[in-house]
Amino acid sequence: MKDLLVKFLKPYWKQITLAIILLVVQAISNLYLPNLNADIINNGVAKGDIDYIINTGGFMLAVTLLLAICAVASAYLGSKTAMAFGRDVRRAIFYKVESFSQAEVDKFGTPSLITRNTNDVQQVQMLVLLGLYLMVMAPIMAIGGIIMALRQDVVLSYSIIIIVPIMAAVVGLMLWKATPLFRSIQIKIDRVNQVMREKLMGVRVIRAFVKNEHEAKRFDEANRDLTATTLKVNRIMAFAMPSLMAVMNLATVAIVWFGAGRIDSGAMPIGNLTAFLTYIMQIMISVMMAMGMFIMVPRAEASAERLSEVLDTEPSIKDTPTPAAPSDIKGYLEFRNVEFSYPGAEEPVLKDISFEAAPGQTTAIIGSTGCGKTTLVNLIPRFYDVTGGSILIDGIDIRDMTQQNLRDKIGLVPQKAFLFSGTVADNLRYGNENATDDELWHALEVAQAKDFVMEMPGQLDAPIEQGGTNVSGGQRQRLAIARALVKKPEIYVFDDSFSALDFKTDAKLRLALKGETAGSTVVIIAQRVSTIMDADRIIALNDNGIIAGIGTHAQLMETCDVYREIVYSQLSKEEIA
Amino acid sequence: MSEDNKPKTLPGRQRGGFGGGRAAMMPAEKAKDFKGTLKRLINYLKPQAFKILLVIIFTVVSVAFTISAPKILGQATNELFGGVISKQLPAGMTKDQVVAGLKAQGQDQLAEMISGMELTPGKGVDFDAILRILIILAGVYLLASAFQWLQQYIMASVAQGTVYRLRRDVDRKLVKLPLKYYDDHSHGDILSRVTNDVDNIAHTLQQSLTQLVHATVTVIGVLIMMFSISSLLAWISLIVIPLSLIVTMLIAKQSQKQFIAQWDSTGNLNGHIEEMFTGHNIVKAFNRQDEAIERFDEENERLYKASFKAQFISSIIHPAINFLNNLNYVAVCVIGGIRVANGIITLGDVQAFIQYSRQFTQPIVQTASIMNILQSTVASAERVFELLDEQEEIPDTDNPIVLDDIRGHVKFEHVYFRYKPDVPLIEDMNLDAQPGHSIAIVGPTGAGKTTLVNLLMRFYEIDSGRITVDGVDIRDMRRDDLRKNFGMVLQDTWLFNGTIKENIAYGKENATDDEIIAAAQAAYVDHFVRTLPDGYNTVLNDDASNISQGQKQLLTIARAFLADPRILILDEATSSVDTRTEMLIQKAMAKLMKNRTSFVIAHRLSTIRDADNILVMNNGRIIEQGNHQELMAARGFYYDLYNSQFLGAYADADAV
Q1: Could A243 and B145 be called an inter-chain contact, meaning their C-beta atoms sit closer than 8 Å?
Q2: For residue B520, how far is the Cα from the chain centroid?
Q3: Furthest-apart CA atoms within chain B: distance in Å
């Protein structure tokens, strides 16, 4: 955590120094105030000296005003620094993640990266905000309090040695008891949420299987469990404040008793007793503040560690410093003995994949789940780098191009059609900002999306919600296809992009697509044989990521068992012929 | 059943942090009917009335003790002060003699002060008296703490008990709500009522409510004490109240604006992060990192500014109030000093008064912020009550007909149905499904295929006409009895967080392991399950992402096998299931359908062609009905649909 704090707070060292100075001034005036109080009582009220009261009172107000100004100024600097720190860390994380290849994203997991970029930054920022205040205030108040208390009366100050450990013990006991329970509460809240979410998602199934009672029981268990644990914690916490108050108050009583003796013997003036009590209070409060830090620091530390992990990760895919000159040919794709294994995996997912594709040709990939189809196409835009062999586009190894150049050539339609929040047009122009409306409509028409976009309010300007949740799965897929079309790439990659379409739309779309992709290479993954029967080249992958057969539908029907098995599972004899 | 993907809410956007929740510092949402909802919430607490009464009594007692403490401490100081002064006076004289003597010496002020004190000149400090006072004081302090503890202890069970009931009631209510409610409300919305809103109420009950009682009693008690000591000083202190309130409100108003801005930009920024990270591949594939970063920077800067301002402005309150307090302190000291000098009040009283005045502003500021919290709590309560007030499903009939061994004869007779009153959907639908027959439902997306299923299971109520099973109107049966006869395998496979075994066993209560394994074997998923390290005890994670879509579907088929219903509703998968698994699914489904009346929302031609009856639906109507040969011969909508499916295949055939 230290490294992270040092690194990101360094630019603000001037503000921080100033804030610390202001806090020190604050702390000192805070400590000085009880002294003035004592003076007012000792020399003013007790002696009936009104002038003295007014003068000292005026001075006291001046100190208070200074205190207030310092407090506001340090709050200004403190919050500014803390928030700037948060902003900078957040930015650093975001930049870093944007530079990651898929391999690094996989390593952390998307949800985890999101949490790191949001909640974890928040946690550490919180620590900076409060820490700046607490870490300066608590020690100064404690030490200053002790010094001032000593000045009031040395003998009475020995009481601190007894009181502070008792307080620390009380607070420590509470924390020791409650902290694990707090953690388990969080788990139990999650459990209640989980059961509820499952019930909401599965409402039809639950009703269909007549499982309401079973579900009610499941929820009640989670609910009861959460309630019981929360009750336990709250009961422990109910003890916290009263017991602390009791310790503090009894300390006061004891001090008055012993103080009385000191006063009677003339060792201490009476006004000092009140001041002494105030200082003791301050010491106790700073002990509590310090305890608060002890709770906060470990939590922030865990977050900081998670942040450092991201910041210390280097993207595995970087641009070559010497990109090759662009080639004259366009729309050629070649896999040369490509092998790929995921980081840390024992076995490669893909082995010895070789094929060539020219413009106007369609290459289809088929095979069972987990055989590496998506992995194969993910290698083309360099989401991952091959671990053996090479991939060439237009005769150039893709590792010798910049990522920007490479990806400009590719139009990807992923398995999960992901749309961004914005309008339909925003989404379509994602790959080509300068596309005209006509071009957009044309792409929509090819993608069989024109009809429903026409019906949407605002048409091209119709809003799309985050993730595209306000359009159906089939519509989402068609918009994603249109998005790729607008880009007019050299290489189209369709990763099982027709799955949510009904047969009729699927067929129409493929027909329209044919005219559109004439000058490009098309790589297509499909589950339905009917979708790919007319491909120029079908690659059937077996379960081990090896090519089981490569050729046209007719060729593979004769030579390839894996392919035949797939076909027979979907079509009856007459349809195949 | 529908295709909508459930939006996943970002962690932290719902609860906690600056980003979420309805935390105390957040601008309060206003309830639509504050008074009514508050009343209802209080009503909800009624079963705990006795405990709450105890809490209030204990609070009052605890505060009374706390408040009397400074006064007692003041007595000790008086005793001490008197003792110290008396020591300096000649022994043997009476107080009056001393006062007279001092006056004679011209020390009028000192004389007046001493005349206001109780002392015996020359006696010195009376330690016995001080000890007595201090023992009482210690007792008072301990009692104050003890009662405070008791009060919070009891309140914990009040709060948790209430919240438990609230959650339970919501859960029970959800069971009774028609599916329409689920269609109209997002899961996030419902979930947030059960969790965030209820948590919010819990927190308020546990903390804010007792604080409110505590603060109110304290203010009243302190005021009484202050006036009993010196009404003049009390009035002076009272000036501080409106001042503090005004200052607090002014600053709070400004900071709330900033908190709203902060809230907004946190939402925007988190949304952007979530979107960019989720779509990482797309962003990269389309070379849009720079735009992503640009937008991030904008939002990030906006968040920085808003949160800085919010933080800064809200941190002004404390020093400002502090200053006012000190102002008050000096005023009390000056006037109190004069009065002590004049012998009108004692030093101990002034000190007690100062202590009281210090205890005085804090609960007032606290009350102001509790009011804010209370507002958002009532808004939360309103949302929860809203849910509890939703219209429930029509209750089951009082004299239900129970069919024991049904054959599975399903009939739709002149059925009309609309989701929305002004959008006609199913009109005059007739259908006769003989026992053991398979009915394929085909048609374009949105043709009303799932609606048919919804009506059959009585998830929705038909507007007119009737649906019968073995000749009995489904409305004459209990819903549970009706649904027990149905088995459902949906595309939207629903598995819950639990082991595979538990998930399969969902189809039948008290299923034995053998039955479960037999069902899995029938669904061709046994082999797969056994390859998993934990076999049938493999725990499916939250969204069951540790097994593939196809395997999920096989598990739901196994579930249906175990349930062994007479009537089946199947929804064939269109989405990414690999071909091998697909084959297994098909085989399993075919096996499952044997000898059962089955309704299949079909996408596969083989299923459709083998069906005894094909319903071709478009725009909520059955436009064609018959078997494959009949429909092909009719050369209608079905004929078109069938041919279009093999467009690609035909094109290829032409080429060969």
Answers
A1: yes
A2: 38
A3: 136
CA A171 from chain centre, in angstroms, equals 33
| Residue B539, C-beta contacts closer than 8 angstroms, at least 6 positions apart | B497, B498, B499
From chain B, the residues in CB contact with A76 under 8 A are 312
Assess whether B525 and B636 both reside in one domain: no
Token pair, residue A564, equals 């035949």
- Looking at the structure, tell me whether residues B600 and B464 fall in a common domain: yes
Instruction: State residue B654's pLDDT score.
Output: 32
pLDDT at A369: 63
Binned at pLDDT 50, 70 and 90, residue B605 comes out as low
pLDDT per position as a tens digit, A182-215 = 778 878 887 888 788 788 877 777 777 777 788 8
- Put simply, whether A243 touches B (Cβ < 8 Å) is yes
Q: Is the pLDDT of residue B28 over 90?
A: no
pLDDT band at residue B577, thresholds of 50, 70 and 90? Answer: low
State the Cα–Cα distance between residues A432 and B287, nearest whole angstrom.
10
Residues in chain B: 656
In a domain, B656, yes or no: yes
Q: What is the pLDDT confidence band of residue B546, given thresholds at 50, 70 and 90?
A: low
Please tell me which of the candidates B304, B323, B350 has its beta carbon nearest to residue A87.
B304
User: Which among B287, B299, B646 is the top mutation candidate for probing chain A, defined by the most A β-carbons within 10 Å of its own β-carbon?
Assistant: B287
- Asked whether the predicted pLDDT for residue B24 surpasses 70, the reply is no
The residue range of the domain holding B647 is 427-485+566-581+596-656
Q: Looking at residue B142, what is its pLDDT?
A: 93
What average pLDDT score do residues A46-55 get? 75
Mean of all residue pLDDT scores within chain A: 80
Q: Are residues B244 and B368 in contact, defined by beta-carbon separation less than 8 angstroms?
A: no
Q: What is the CATH number of the domain that holds B451?
A: 3.40.50.300
Does B606 share its domain with B462? yes
B510 with B643, same domain: the answer is no
Amino acid identity, position B114: I
For B329, residues 6+ apart whose C-beta sits below 8 A from its C-beta are A37, A60, B354, B357, B358
Measure B497 CA to nearest chain A CA, in Å.
8
Q: Which chain B residues are Cβ-neighbours of A105 within 8 angstroms?
A: 277, 280
Residue B504 belongs to some domain of the structure: yes
Say how far apart CA B310 and CA B492 lie, in whole Å.
45
- Ramachandran assignment for A570, one of left (phi > 0), alpha (psi -120 to 50 degrees), beta (any other): alpha
Contact between B77 and B351 under an 8 Å Cβ cutoff? The reply is yes
* Structural domains in chain B (count): 2
Predicted pLDDT of residue B11 = 33
Q: Kindly state whether residues B603 and B650 are assigned to the same domain.
A: yes
CA dist B90 → A269, B107, B165, B533 (Å): 20, 16, 73, 96
Nearest-Cα residue of chain A relative to residue B5: A469
**Chain B touched by A118 (CB under 8 Å):** yes
DSSP calls for A471-513: S-HHHHHHHHHHHHHHH--SEEEEESTTTTS-HHHHHHHHHHH
Report long-range pairs for A221-226 (Cβ below 8 Å, ≥24 apart): A222/A188, A222/A191, A222/A192, A222/A195, A223/A192, A223/B164, A223/B167, A223/B168, A223/B171, A224/B164, A225/A188, A225/A191, A226/A185, A226/A188, A226/A189, A226/A191, A226/A192
pTM for this one?
A: 0.70
